[in-house]
Write a structure and sequence with these properties.
about 5% strand, about 45% helix, 11 helices, mainly alpha, three-stranded mixed β-sheet, two-stranded antiparallel sheet, about 290 residues
Length: about 290
């Protein structure tokens, strides 16, 4: 294990140098220019993996390995997330005790809107994720909130993502310094090293996508949230974006934050914005 980690760290250092040369703006934390950051972020991956179709980055590790991609395509004939889709569709249409439904809380009745989440709420001054919006909808209608990490929340977001499949991610950053600050905070969190392993999110998903850590092939950061929620064999079930962030923190031996903490909402805002233009592919399946 120590040998593997040493090899990975060595690889990360070399990749970091290459990344800095190709895309210095992404690593620059002293300027807030989301448009330039998104362009540099996408171009880094497009240049690093010239044989990967741009829209395929949303398929995570399957875009990095031909053997895995073939196995995944076979699994997609009977996808492991199908049960969650069915449950989510039924839950979405089932009225609350007051007779209203989720459709009453969202634009376009909640259908085909996944690509617009998260968004920056100018009245609140914070990022609002789809998971947070669903629980706020429940509470506004007298229902108890769901867990943010799996089960019902994963089923609901799976169904909503499915209704948006193929639509390009379309995250807005309004002309509001608080929105720019949220974007910048998310970027900073993404690149900050933490935990006993001293890894950042970027250590695995920018500098080493396509490489193996243990038996797992690391996914590219570009489009990583377009596939959420996901079924993971490792989890033996569905998980949400919140669960993915918490798992990543645990894997680097850092202390996970509470689901929907400001830091997680901001990093979701950053990662979603830099994936603008790439299609929604959720719900997804991962090893």
């Amino acid at each position: 294990m120590k040998v593997r980690i040493s090899l990975l760290l060595g690889s990360l250092s070399a990749a970091l140098v290459a990344f800095a040369l190709v895309s210095p703006r992404v690593l620059a934390a002293d300027k807030v220019d989301p448009v330039a950051d998104a362009k540099a972020f996408q171009n880094f991956f497009f240049h690093k993996f010239p044989n990967v179709k741009h829209e395929d980055f949303v398929n995570g590790p399957y875009s990095m390995n031909e053997d895995m991609k073939r196995q995944w395509e076979e699994k997609e004939e009977f996808p492991p997330y199908e049960f969650a889709l069915d449950a989510g569709k039924e839950m979405f249409s089932t009225p609350f005790k007051n007779g209203k439904t989720y459709a009453d809380c969202f634009p376009n009745g909640g259908i085909g809107i996944r690509q617009n989440y998260p968004y920056f709420d100018e009245k609140e001054g914070k990022v609002v994720t789809l998971e947070l919006a669903l629980n706020r909808c429940r509470e506004a209608n007298g229902e108890a909130p769901y867990s943010y990490v799996k089960d019902e929340m994963a089923s609901l977001t799976a169904y909503m993502a499915f209704t948006s499949r193929g639509k390009p991610m379309d995250i807005k950053i309004p002309d509001d310094p608080r929105a720019l600050e949220a974007f910048e905070n998310g970027k900073r969190y993404f690149y900050t090293r933490r935990g006993q392993l001293n890894f950042s999110c970027a250590s695995c998903h920018v500098q080493s996508p396509g490489e193996r850590i243990r038996a797992e092939i690391l996914a590219p950061a570009l489009g990583i949230l377009n596939a959420m929620p996901i079924y993971r064999s490792e989890w033996s079930g569905m998980g949400t974006t919140s669960r993915r962030f918490i798992t990543c923190n645990s894997q680097t031996r850092a202390v996970p934050l509470e689901p929907q903490a400001d830091e997680y909402r901001d990093v979701e805002y950053f990662l979603s914005y830099v994936a603008n233009g790439l299609p929604i592919s959720g719900p997804g399946a991962r090893p």
